[in-house]
Amino acid sequence: MKGHDAAVDALRALIRIPTVSDWDPAREDRSAFEALLAELRERFPRLHAACEVERIGGDALLVRWPGRTREAPVVLMAHLDVVPVGEASAWTHPPFAGDLADGHVWGRGALDCKGSLVATCQAVEDLIEDGVTPGRDVWLSFGCNEEVSGRAAQDAVAVLRERGVEPWFVLDEGGAIVQGALPGVDAPMAVVGVSEKGTVDVELIARGDGGHASAPRRMGPTSRLARAILRLERKPFPSHLPDATLDMLERAGSHARMPYAVAFRHARRLRPVLSRVLPQLGHETAAMARTTVAVTQLSGSPGANVIAATARAHVNMRVMVGETVDGAVARIRSTIKDPHVEVVVVSGNEPSPVSPTDDAAYALLESTLRDVFPGTVAVPYVMLAATDSRHFHRVWPRVYRFTPFRMTAAQRASIHGADERIGIDDLRDGVAWYRRLIEQL
Ligand SMILES: [Zn+2]
Description:
Blueprint (H helix, E strand, L loop, with lengths): L3 H12 L14 H14 L1 H6 L1 E5 L3 E6 L8 E6 L20 E2 L2 E3 L7 H16 L8 E6 L8 H11 L6 E10 L10 E8 L1 E10 L3 E2 L8 H14 L8 H11 L6 H6 L5 H7 L5 H7 L2 E8 L6 E2 L2 E10 L5 H12 L4 E9 L10 H13 L4 E7 L5 H5 L5 E8 L2 H6 L6 E3 H16 L2
The structure holds zinc ion (ZN).
């Protein structure tokens, strides 16, 4: 069976193998990853015969499909692991059944990221069957611990560097083909991530004497911590628009209705106004325009009648492109303005550089989009979430984050949520997009 229905069957088979990654690798089911790799060998035999396939860093795959020339290669990425399902009863179809219903394949990983894993492999498999050899080497890098910020992608980068590989560009999961993402734009937009925000995890710690809850003192550790959290909430980071976001608005401008068309086309001149307006439009547009601060975990005393001697809050920040981890930490210190609240940095990743949108690599993605999804407008954007490709972006300049599937708002919400699903036509068009991309390399 060739092509498109093979992709649907392969995706259903991969969803049935619960490759859930965990922050503690000891709690991962190694046999599931083993089974997934075996399933890939079964479903994509030509890929495994014609390409050099190796396992790195445990269960990750690094694949080289030799091309006709020594031109700089291209790296296509996806990941094999998925996030847990949460409340399984919230799902319309069981999360690991791979059901085919209402024109969709249902299950954890359908979009993130087994869909693009299958679409990539199917495109390669079909091209090999048709006797096609790519114009340059194509590398496939499939990590096994993306969802828990594991090391697989760093290992892949290390291996590629060791072998002197200098990719022309790298393509990983990221933006999709969406509708209604920008006000005033009716056409579907393919949003291509050209950068991603940084992340900082910080612990806030307030200490005191503790003691019995029957005789509390004023401003104990819990009150002090609460005051610090409220200060952070009341004084958000200043908003500003990075160049990549202006680029997005300008490109969308020629496809927007009035009055948006004018505002977007003159985005550069209107930067100060837009920087003020975007945060007012909702929490998602606010996140596009500033470093965000989320208090995600709180802890106090272990007993209901015990005053906390130590109160802690975990803060997860997403650092705007153009800012730094150190700058973000310094700012929350000065906002909290309390020497008795310790600010301890747990981990930090700087924002990514910004990939170019004015050269041949981006133009190739754009023209491939026009070919396979006519009427779709390609725009660059800054991703809010982190992907494995940030490790590639530290070393190589052209890293694009795009998943070639149409996704409704409900589907986007299903990623890491309930009822994750992909339309079978969308999976088929995704296969066609990877195929067209590889044909033109
Ligand atoms: Zn993912």
